[in-house]
Recover the amino acids of this structure.
């Protein structure tokens, strides 16, 4: 069953905005998962917490967290992230989807894949350029045959002057238009669910209460969940993102305790670093 949350005086995350009306029915969906996207997927600025005997942390990203979240038998979660996505979104986006198509996963988690098809400098071309680039991103996704959980476009203008310039940020109306386009596109693709990243970031940037079906971060948790650049999530913030993904999946066999999830993910990342 798709899980919907009420809007009250706090922000409750509506995990699935719209999309195909399918339901994941069994754990085979989780047997061969892949993650793809830009810097949030890639774990920009993230490291495992240091432990005794280590001189520092190890890189950690969404792949390790999703891997830790899946408790049923599954292959190691495959990573198709690209922290430099912002430099050439069409080139990197096409390359990643080609690689994923060849890998043939049972489920693709693409929280921030479309972000740089919406954001970035457009010169004198204006908002119509953004719309056309976003359409190109959707066109690239047409090659996917697997189940897909895709994030919509957040409004992160509060990151202007920190990690984004004003010229890189779409107009509010453009973001709304692109998210409506994504909703319409998803309705034509039965295997697609749209993750409501827009509302997730609204809660983060407003420092509001953030609630998934399994855990609540009270208002005032922004420093725990969002880096100072107001764009990238912290380790715990990326765990919060994964819990929104878990709500979209809606199956048993998922670890949804954030503290346990952070411990498991860190262990996986450390083990990977030793290989």
């Amino acid at each position: 069953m798709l899980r919907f949350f009420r809007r009250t005086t706090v922000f409750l995350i509506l995990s699935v905005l719209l999309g195909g009306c399918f339901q994941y029915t069994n754990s085979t969906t989780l047997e061969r998962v892949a993650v793809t996207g830009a810097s949030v997927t890639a774990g920009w600025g993230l490291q495992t917490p240091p432990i005794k005997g280590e001189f520092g942390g190890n890189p950690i990203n969404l792949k390790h967290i999703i891997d830790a979240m899946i408790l049923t038998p599954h292959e190691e979660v495959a990573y198709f992230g690209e922290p430099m996505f912002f430099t050439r979104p069409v080139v990197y986006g096409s390359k990643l989807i080609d690689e994923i198509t060849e890998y043939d996963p049972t489920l693709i988690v693409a929280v921030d894949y479309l972000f740089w098809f919406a954001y970035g400098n457009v010169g004198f071309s204006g908002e119509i350029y953004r719309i056309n680039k976003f359409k190109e991103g959707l066109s690239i996704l047409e090659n996917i045959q697997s189940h897909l959980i895709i994030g919509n476009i957040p409004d992160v203008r509060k990151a202007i002057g920190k990690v984004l310039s004003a010229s890189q940020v779409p107009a509010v109306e453009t973001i709304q238009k692109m998210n409506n386009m994504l909703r319409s596109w998803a309705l034509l693709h039965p295997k697609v669910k749209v993750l409501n990243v827009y509302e997730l970031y609204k809660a983060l940037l407003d420092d509001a209460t953030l609630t998934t079906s399994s855990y609540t971060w009270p208002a005032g948790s922004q420093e725990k969940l969002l880096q100072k650049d107001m764009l990238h999530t912290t380790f715990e913030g990326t765990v919060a993102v994964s819990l929104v993904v878990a709500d979209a999946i809606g199956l048993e066999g998922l670890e949804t305790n954030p503290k346990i999830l952070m411990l498991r993910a860190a262990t996986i990342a450390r083990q990977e670093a030793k290989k």
User: Anything to note?
Assistant: The longest strand covers residues 33-37. The longest helix spans residues 258-274. The radius of gyration is 18 Å. Residues 1-12 have pLDDT under 50 and may be disordered.
